[in-house]
Write a structure and sequence with these properties.
12 helices, alpha+beta, binds iron/sulfur cluster, 40% helix, Alpha-Beta Plaits, disordered N terminus
Length: 295
C-alpha cells in the first residue's frame, strides 16, 4: 500500500530504505534517543514532498486576495492553525543557536551517529529564488540522515563549521529558527536561517501570527543611550518582526512583538540594547532554555 501511494520505483526503494534502517537518533533534551520507524518514515515523507508544500504555500502568499483581505487572512490563519503538527520554529540569537549546536555535537550516541549536516535552503531551492548565503539549512541528527539521503546537496559538518555558518547568517541579518514538528523536541530536525522575503515559514507568520514562537530571550532598551532615529534607526530596519518603530524623535520598542533574534543588539550603534531572559518562555518543554545557554 505504501509502495502504491508513493508511486515511482525509486521512491518506493527510498521508502523501504528508511523504514528498515535502524538506529535513527533524535534530540531529547539531555540525551539522544532512538526513534521508531514510523517517526522516521513520516518525517522522511514530509521531507520528500516539502518542496511541493512550500511551492503551494508560496503561491498562496503571493496572492493579494489571501494576504490583504480579511477573508484571505482568515483562511490563511485557519490553514496555519491546522498545520499545528507541521514544522514550527523557535527564534533564538546566534549564541543560543551555537550553544545548541555544540550541545547536540557533544551528546553521546552510537559511534558513527550523524549529528550535523548543511545544505541549500529548502525554501530558496523549492522556489528557485536564490540569495546568499544560500547553503544554510543546518539539519541535525535524524534530520541530517533524511536530508542527506534525499540527495539535495547536503554534506556532513562539525560544530565548528556550523558555528561559522550561523555567524555568517547573523552578519547577513538572518534570523535563526529552531524548527521542529509535532510540537515536540524529539522532532527537532533543522536550524533554519530565515529572511522575510523568501522564507515561507516567516512569511506565513507575518500574515497569520502562527508557526513561529518567541525564544527564551527578549530585548531590553536603554532609552538614555539610544542615538535616536535621525542618527541611527538601525533597529527599525533590521527587525523582521516590526517590533521597533519611530515615534517622534525616539524609538518605540513593542516588547510583545520581540521574538528574541538579537539582530537589533548587533546593529545598535548606541550600545543601547541587550538580550535578557523572557519572563515566560513557552517552549521550555520543546527545547529547554539551559541548552541555549540561558540560565
Ligand atoms: S526587537 Fe530586536 S531582538 Fe526583538 S525581534 Fe526585533 S530585532 Fe529581534
Ligand atoms: S539601533 Fe540602538 S542606537 Fe540605533 S536607534 Fe535603535 S536603539 Fe537607538
Amino acid at each position: 500500500m505504501i509502495v502504491e501511494f508513493l508511486g515511482t520505483p525509486d521512491c518506493s526503494l527510498d521508502a523501504l530504505w528508511c523504514v528498515f534502517l535502524v538506529g535513527h537518533l533524535a534530540f531529547a533534551g539531555d540525551r539522544l534517543v532512538p526513534i521508531n520507524k514510523l517517526h522516521y518514515f513520516l518525517h522522511w515523507l514530509y521531507g520528500k514532498y516539502e518542496p511541493q508544500v512550500l511551492m503551494i504555500v508560496d503561491w498562496i502568499l503571493r496572492k493579494k486576495l489571501m494576504t490583504e483581505t480579511v477573508f484571505g487572512r482568515a483562511v490563511l490563519t485557519g490553514i496555519a492553525t491546522a498545520s499545528h503538527y507541521l514544522p514550527h520554529g523557535i527564534v533564538v540569537p546566534t549564541q543560543s543557536a551555537i550553544n545548541l549546536v555544540r550541545y547536540i555535537d557533544s551528546l553521546k550516541g552510537e559511534e558513527d551517529s550523524l549529528k550535523l549536516a548543511v545544505g541549500p535552503c529548502v525554501c530558496q531551492m523549492s522556489l528557485n529564488r536564490w540569495k546568499e548565503p544560500s547553503c544554510k539549512d543546518i539539519v541535525v541528527l535524524y534530520g541530517a540522515e533524511i536530508y542527506l539521503h534525499l540527495n539535495r546537496g547536503y554534506r556532513i559538518i562539525d560544530a565548528e563549521e556550523a558555528t561559522a555558518i550561523l555567524e555568517q547568517c547573523r552578519d547577513a541579518g538572518l534570523v535563526h529558527c529552531l524548527d521542529f514538528c509535532m510540537q515536540s523536541g524529539r522532532w527537532h530536525f533543522v536550524i533554519c536561517n530565515c529572511d522575510k522575503e523568501i522564507c515561507v515559514l516567516v512569511r506565513t507568520f507575518l500574515v497569520t501570527g502562527k508557526m513561529i514562537y518567541a525564544g527564551p530571550l527578549i530585548v531590553k532598551q536603554d532609552r538614555n543611550r539610544c542615538l535616536g532615529p535621525d542618527v541611527c534607526g538601525a533597529c527599525v530596519s533590521i527587525c523582521i518582526f516590526k517590533a521597533n518603530s519611530i515615534r517622534g524623535e525616539s524609538i518605540h520598542l513593542d516588547s510583545t512583538r520581540c521574538y528574541g533574534c538579537g539582530q537589533c543588539v548587533r546593529v545598535c550603534r548606541g550600545n543601547a540594547r541587550e538580550m535578557i531572559r523572557r519572563a515566560r518562555y513557552e517552549k521550555e518543554h520543546v527545547i529547554p532554555s539551559r541548552l541555549l545557554g540561558v540560565d
